[in-house]
Amino acid sequence: MSTGAVGRICNLGFDNNGNGRDAAVICTGTQTTSTPGPTLPPDFATIAPIDCNNTITSLRLDPGPEEGLVLIQNGSLGGDNFGTICAAGFSAIEAATICRMLCRNETANAIGMSGKYLTTAASYPVMLSGLKCPAGATSTNDCKHNGWGAAPSYCTPNTAVSVRCSQISLTPPPIPAPFVVCHLYVANVFFTYTDVASASLLSLYGTYNETTCNFTKNENSTTVWATVPYIGCNSVQTTNATHVIYTSMLYRNVTAVSGVYVDVPYIIPVECAIPKLKEVTAALLPDARTAPPITGGDSYTSEVKLYRSYNARGFSSEIAPGDRLVVGSRIYARVRETSPLNVRLTVRNCWASDKSDGTGASYYVVRNKCATDANTVFRVDEKNIGINFAVMSFTQTVSTQAYIFCDVTICTPTDPDERCLQTCGTALANKQF
């Protein structure tokens, strides 16, 4: 047939209806031939049509029935070729599509998750990634994806999609139950992996200066933990009748992969309480003639040290092992709060004893915040109290060691509690310093 010509051909086999009619065809243009292009892989997640009246075999939730790891079958491969769906790009629209395919009615509450059912996910390959469905899709046959078995390297068992089709419970999930260890001016907060799946989910709540706040987080094979300093971060200092309290707000974020969430965030208050009342022990007072070794006792935040002199520049000539002292000579005890915390120290009682546990013969140099005999008590600053007293001996003929003990109270600088003020007695006319 020439270009532009009109003719007749028999319809036999043309439309396969055998009705004897002619088929009219008009051909225009120049006839050309071309080589067929390559066959491209389908861009659709083609699976067997879903029939809610029969058992669904190409898609399931493990463990199911309302929630589980999504396992989808590539029927073109034959056999039991199930695999997971990568969470990247997966949203509530795709979750609702999965639930419709599983013949669930609560698709409005469908939610996609990742990071769950990791053991099961590790035993399957990634079957689909980049799954994108139109709103209202009833099957993955309506959706696009990256191709069967084609998945980026970040698609791992941790990013395998799980779906919940049932209505979201109005009961909130369990509150994380960490345990806290407060020591050396930091709070260490420990979580199990059930409460926090990764250390990357932990942060401090609110604003803080990252250059001054040494907040850290770590994890090992069993535990996730965060370390929150009392100072330099966003801790709030408060006080009650018995303790100084430092409160920090720890934030546990949610697990999210491209908009797919596993859980809900939590703000967790972390409190560390330091008792106001404390006993400082193990500061040695030399005997009358030979100075024994001196140790600076440290009861968490406080210590006592001994010096020969004190002036406007501070304490000097610390008494060292081997020094000789004469009974009746005057020395200085420095009671000090050693932490970097903003607190005030008050001395209630200080006494010398001939027993290392403080139970033997005693001589008080400070009692009920008042200096005894010719002794004096003075405040150097908020964290330092000085005591001037005379060297004593518990025997007349034999050199013996004497031990100094002090009861201290640690408060916030503005605490009005009477125990937090270095006053002698309770009368308002008494001197306060």
UniProtKB/TrEMBL annotation:
| SRCR domain boundaries | 59-166
Species: Macrostomum lignano
User: Record's SMART domains?
Assistant: SR, ZP
Which PANTHER family does the record associate with it? DELTA-LIKE PROTEIN (PTHR14002:SF43), ENDOGLIN/TGF-BETA RECEPTOR TYPE III (PTHR14002)
Disulphide-bridged cysteine pairs: C133-C143
Enumerate the UniProt keywords alphabetically. Answer: Disulfide bond, Signal
Tell me which residues make up the ZP domain.
181-427
**Can you supply one Gene Ontology CC term for this chain's record?**
membrane
The protein's name is ZP domain-containing protein
TM regions (residue ranges):
none
InterPro entries according to UniProt: SRCR (IPR001190), SRCR-like_dom_sf (IPR036772), ZP-C (IPR055355), ZP-C_dom (IPR042235), ZP_dom (IPR001507)
Pfam families linked to this entry? SRCR, Zona_pellucida
